[in-house]
Amino acid sequence: MTTETLVFDTKQELVDTAASRFVDLITRAQAERGVASVVLTGGSNGIGILSALAADSGTIDWSKVDIYWGDDRFVPADDPERNSGQAREALLDKVPVDPSRIFPMAPSDGPLGDDIGAAAADYAAILAGRSSDGVAPEFDLHLLGMGGEGHINSLFPHTEATAETTKSVVAVEDSPKPPPRRITLTLPVVNRARQVWFLVAGADKAEAVAAAHRGADAADWPAAGAHGTEETIWFLDDAAAADLK
To answer: How far apart are CA 91 and CA 157, in angstroms?
Structure first.
């Protein structure tokens, strides 16, 4: 496993480079295994990379890409805060993705209703059904944003979700960042990905970036607990990388 840290002058350069590397990684995975799998994230950088990919949609065979999410807000399907809805608007409605290969987390007004526990269990079952070992796929790529306190997906410091070692997906009912109800993949599943990419910009993230780089305790800084089985890449702007210098 290797770790690479890339630092850019601007957030746009960060997004553009990540999008270019995304194309290379997915096309390589398709050449090797036929189908590629990616876990998407929300946030300005996560959605930014999807918008950049939509502008150059002809390189990837989107019909052979499995799409998952690292977390989502447990709100109605048409809520603008849904990561899956933002991803569809930025990319998925603009490229020929096979609908049967898109795996969003259940909304609060879906067939499972407002039962967040059932929704988390449903997503765990989806992952298990798409895996070779009954747990979760070995994703080609897991994209991650990061909060100023080091949270990734909906895994926040000193929470049961971050400490989870057995379940692949858990319900979060008291997220410190609104909305409070969310569904999230756990660290053991994040760490099944061949590559984990952090997309991080802003001076308010610098302390967390530095903590994760020095191998801090994941309970304190959840980002420190996320690693790809083959490679981990940090895409940072100058401000987010300030404490590394």
So the answer is: 31
SS3 66: strand
Give the H/E segment covering residue 51. helix 43-54
* CA distances for 183 relative to 72, 80, 101, 124, 155, angstroms: 6, 16, 20, 10, 10
State the CB neighbour count (10 A cutoff) for residue 215.
10
- The residue type at 83: N
* Structure tokens, 28: 């390589």
Q: Count Cα neighbours of 117 within 13 Å in the Cβ-side half-sphere.
A: 0
Are 239 and 10 in contact by the 8 Å Cβ rule? The answer is no
DSSP type of residue 47: H
End-to-end CA distance of the chain: 23
DSSP 108-129: TTSTTTT-HHHHHHHHHHHHHH
What's the pTM value of the predicted model, to 2 decimals? 0.97
Question: For position 1, what pLDDT does the model report?
Answer: 85
* 8 Å CB contact between 123 and 87: no
Nearest to 146 by CA among 53, 234, 34: 234
Please, is 228 exposed, middle or buried when counting C-beta atoms within 10 Å of its C-beta (0-12, 13-18, 19+)? buried
Average pLDDT per run of 10 along the chain, which is 245 residues long? 96 96 96 97 96 85 97 98 97 96 98 98 98 96 98 98 98 96 98 98 97 96 98 98 90
**Within 13 Å, how many C-alpha atoms sit on residue 92's CB side?**
21
